[in-house]
Amino acid sequence: MAGNGLPTLGRVKLADLIPSEGLPSDSYKLSVSTLSQSLVQYSAAIIQFPTDDGALLRSCLESCRLYFHHKPPFPSADSVQPDDSREWCKTSGYCADPQMWQETYDFRPGLTLTEPGNEIEIPPAGLVDLFAILGKASRDILDAISFYLNLRSSPFTEILDNVPLRNREISSSVLSVCCHGRPSFQGAQHHNLTTQEDGQLAMFPDHDNQVDKTLLTLIKSDKAGLHVRDFHGHWVLVDGDLGPQEAIVYPGLALYQATAGYINPAMHRTDISNVQGSMYGRCSLAFKLMPKSMTSLNCSEMRAAGHGVEAQFQLPVLVDDFMQRSTDQLLNRNSFATFNFPTAQEGSIKPMMRRKKNNLRCKPLPPSKRLRLEAQRVLKERVQDIADKKGIKLRFCTLKECESHIHSLDSPCATIRMEIGWPPGVPFVHPHDLPNKAKISFLETYEPGWSETNDIE
Questions:
Q1: Apex 170 CA angle, 168 and 173, nearest 5
Q2: Which domain of life is it from (predicted)?
Q3: Residue 169, exposed/middle/buried by CB under 10 A (0-12, 13-18, 19+)?
Q4: CA nearest 294: which of 430, 158, 166?
Q5: Where in the chain is the domain with CATH 2.60.120.330?
Q6: pTM of the entire structure?
Q7: Residues 151-206: pLDDT tens digits?
């Protein structure tokens, strides 16, 4: 990899990652290749925003510094950050983590802020506009990664928030404004926060291997200090030479799960030793592109593109369950496979696909199990979607009962079968309970041509 790798972190203009109709331009292909190669080598990349967007980034950072600077030195009990993964999609407003010497303001559209103590909370300025800009940028970056993986256009749309949000919807994605080490913040015991190692200040030694459960994270700070572990296991300072219009992007665990492990999540940590003597601490803006809570992460798009999907990624995972699992569980003991993208050439995705498909650890599933998993997937993706749009509540029969129902026009399930287009002659039961031939008929109904692209005897 040394011969064709990037010498430094990849730097890409956001304008070059915006897709357009027709054939991809040379600048688009080059930018996608640079972005993907950087994510493989460094688990991060630098994104250059247009001039106007860069000005908004800097303005919001300045607003955030003033916001935290005027906060009381001691956090109230209501603002102390709870350790509850079940509330991952409900965080909003100000919270503090005294043990980490960290303060955060979460901006989440669609969620009404409470006002502790009946005091009016005035948030940092510009967050509404910045949320829109970073959200659009994250989706463009996600589509660029999809293009490199040979997936169809916008393959993750079903698990992302609506644009714009519908009435009474709450955003799953969040814009987090963070302040580390504010000198006037006295909520932590300093001797628990800092230790001396090799003459340098080491912050938070127990939190060196942080991994976000996001699809993507876009982050911009006012001081360098973000380290990400690279392909070789070395910690690399990724925001040391950022320009005023530049931000860092890195992938999270949700993207790792949705791409069957092809995109590794970034392991990162933050060094705030350079905040000594600063009156504001270290402020940062982080946009976290998150999947919707009521969806599931599955690898159907990867499978459709011809990628091998290992056993641990075969079954869909509900997003809420995913968010409540520990990082160790999701990463399978913190050891996840590293994967090399090929050299940046047109058509270079084919060697990558062959290498993954020929992986000896990826044993083919038995035909009966493959049929069951595929039938479960299509039930969730196609049949349930049809039922939801028509307002039908699915209530399946037992296999023995429905063998007579399918020959009767006035059976209990006749209307439902007709409205959702259930295949004729196939009992109206959970697809995984069907005999293999009936499973194939079911799959062919909702995905015509399925048997031609799947070797099932």
A1: 155
A2: Eukaryota
A3: middle
A4: 158
A5: 11-297
A6: 0.70
A7: 999 999 999 999 999 998 999 999 999 998 888 886 544 434 444 444 344 444 43
